[in-house]
Write a structure and sequence with these properties.
Number of domains: 2
Oligomer: single chain
Number of strands: 13
CATH class of the largest domain: Alpha Beta
Bound molecules: S-adenosyl-L-homocysteine, iron/sulfur cluster
Mean pLDDT: 90
CATH architecture of the largest domain: Alpha-Beta Barrel
Number of helices: 11
Radius of gyration: 21 Å
Largest sheet: 11 strands, mixed
CATH superfamily of the largest domain: Aldolase class I
Strand order of the largest sheet: 12-11-10-9-8-7-4-3-2-1-13
Helix content: 25-40%
Distance between the termini: 15 Å
Strand content: 15-25%
CATH topology of the largest domain: TIM Barrel
Length: 352
């Protein structure tokens, strides 16, 4: 380990915890959050001696290595090596009108859904708040953007965010705080496999973030076959918690539904999804996700026509539905493909 790596990480939160006088603290926070500085040397309005002092005592970034894998469709998968050697991933998704990042909350995932490559990895550990937030800062830096230019965050990378809620909620508060990134909570979406008490705690946290529920099956029998936690949490209990979240936040809820051939793609299941939503008067939107294949996956995706048929049934039932064709499939960056693989061309990024 080099001496640099032994430096503790500067966690600029709260701003008061930064070194120096009040004015200096605000200057450093501004450099990190608004300008995206990754080294103290970049903070050119700090006296040179102070910069050197800070450089010797602290480091800004969590990561020992950041590797970028650009996809042909413009998205970029990032592989981060953490200071304990563990790895996690995030994805940069540029759209015409906005720039989105998909962040991880854990190394691997303890849930182990059958269709998900992250689940097949097993569980490494929880990420710290700063490790979650730093994925966004590192991506912005690599893309040549100020962190504040990234307007949308989806917590849909590796891991189950509600199983690391404390860290996720601290990271989200940093994103929202005006002295940090100043993001709108409406542009932050947390995706969960469905843990009722976690959903209720999220509502109590009152962060104002959008909720996405990975439903994937409306009936317990099917859901239990593909999602291990479904054995502990029946669909009805999850839906009640989601309805409470909706009542409290008034934010439209997204239901994610990965289309698996012969498992969850029958028309009766689409009607049942509609019943669950309409029965609770949740303003919702269903995202049908074509299955993204990965090596060794024990399930297959529903063919296009089957996906369209399922979508038609939902629409007929009055549920707004979109088919979400994933991006980044060629570099393993798409939903459920995050599995720490180095794929495709590597744009090496030596800066931390
Ligand atoms: N653990 C959380 C968030 C991360 S997974 C959750 O499960 O919601 C993000 C989304 O990708 C989830 O909706 C998940 O079900 C979906 N997903 C997982 N594996 C997939 C795959 N192979 N193809 C398509 N979507 C997948
Ligand atoms: Fe974990 Fe979500 Fe993958 Fe299930 S789908 S294993 S909860 S990351």
């Amino acid at each position: 380990m080099s001496p640099r790596e032994k430096r503790p990480i500067l966690e600029p939160w709260p701003i008061e915890a930064l070194p120096g006088e009040g004015f200096r603290k605000r200057q450093i926070a501004h450099w990190i959050y608004k300008r995206g500085a990754r080294e103290f040397d970049e903070m050119t309005d700090l006296p040179r001696a102070l910069r050197r002092e800070l450089e010797e005592a602290w480091r800004v970034s969590e990561f020992d290595l950041v590797q970028a894998f650009p996809s042909a469709d413009g998205s970029v998968k990032y592989l981060f090596t953490l200071k304990d050697g563990k790895q996690t991933e995030a994805v940069y998704l540029p759209y015409k009108d906005r720039k989105t990042v998909c962040l991880s909350s854990q190394v691997g995932c303890p849930v182990g859904c059958t269709f998900c490559a992250t689940g097949a990895l097993g569980f490494g550990r929880n990420l710290t708040p700063w490790e979650i937030l730093d994925q966004l800062l590192a991506i912005a830096h690599h893309q040549g953007l100020a962190p504040t230019e990234i307007r949308n965050v989806v917590l849909m990378g590796m891991g189950e965010p509600l199983l690391n809620l404390e860290a996720v909620s601290t990271a989200v508060r940093r994103m929202i705080d005006k002295n940090a990134l100043g993001m709108s909570p409406r542009r932050i979406t947390l995706s969960t496999v469905g843990i009722p008490k976690g959903i209720r705690r999220l509502a109590e946290e009152d962060l104002g973030v959008k909720l996405a529920l990975s439903l994937h099956a409306p009936d317990d029998e099917t859901r239990r076959k593909i999602i291990p936690t479904a054995k502990a949490y029946p669909v009805e209990a999850i839906m009640d918690a989601v309805a409470d979240y909706f009542k409290k936040t008034k934010r439209r809820v997204t239901f994610e539904y990965v289309m698996l051939k012969g498992i969850n793609d029958a028309p009766w299941q689409a009607r049942e999804v509609a019943r669950l939503i309409k029965g609770r008067r949740i303003v919702a939107h269903v995202n049908l996700i074509p299955f993204n294949p990965w090596e060794g996956a024990p399930v297959e995706g529903t063919p296009r026509e089957g996906i369209r048929r399922f979508a038609r049934v939902l629409e007929e039932e009055g549920i707004p539905t979109t088919v979400r064709w994933s991006r980044g499939v060629d570099v393993g960056a798409a939903c459920g493909q995050l599995a720490l693989k180095e794929v495709g061309p590597l744009a090496f990024h030596p800066r931390r």
